[in-house]
Amino acid sequence: KDVSGFETQARYGLAQGGADQKLIAQLFGTSWDDGSALFSYQYSERTGLPMAKRAYAANEDKRALGGTDHRSISSNPGNILDPMTFLPAYAIPSGQGGRSLSMADLLPGGVNLKNRNAGVDLLPDQKAHSLYLSVHQELGDRFELLGDLRAGKKDLHYLVNPVDQILFVPSTNPFAVNPFPEVPITVVGYSFQNDLGAIDSAARTQSYSGALGAKAHVGDSWILSLSGSNGRETLRSSVANNLNFPALSLALADPDPSTAFNPFGDGSGNNPATIEKIRLTQRDVARSQISAMNFVGDGVLMNLPTGAVRLAAGGEWRNEELKRSSIGVVARPSTTYSRIVRSAFAELSVPLVGEADNPRAVPRLELSMAGRYEEYSDFGSTANPKIGLRWVPFDSLKFRTSWGTSFKAPKLTDVHDTSHDSVALALLRDPQSAAGSSVVLALEGSNSDLEQEIAQTWTAGVDFAPQSIPGMAASLTFYSINYDHRIVVPGPVPIVNILLQEDRWASVINRQPTMEQIKAACESPTYFGGDVAQCENTSVSAIVDLRVRNLAKTRVRGLDVKLDQSLRTGLGTFDLGLTGSYIFNYRQAASDTSSMTSVLDSVGNPLALRLRGTADWYQRGFDRPGFGASLTIDHFGGYDDDQSTAWTSVGALTTVDLRASYRTSSGNGPLDDLELSLNASNLLDRSPPFVDRSIGYDVINSLPYGRVISFSAQKRW
Question: Which of these, 121, 123, 125, lies nearest to 58 by C-alpha position?
Answer without folding.
Answer: 121
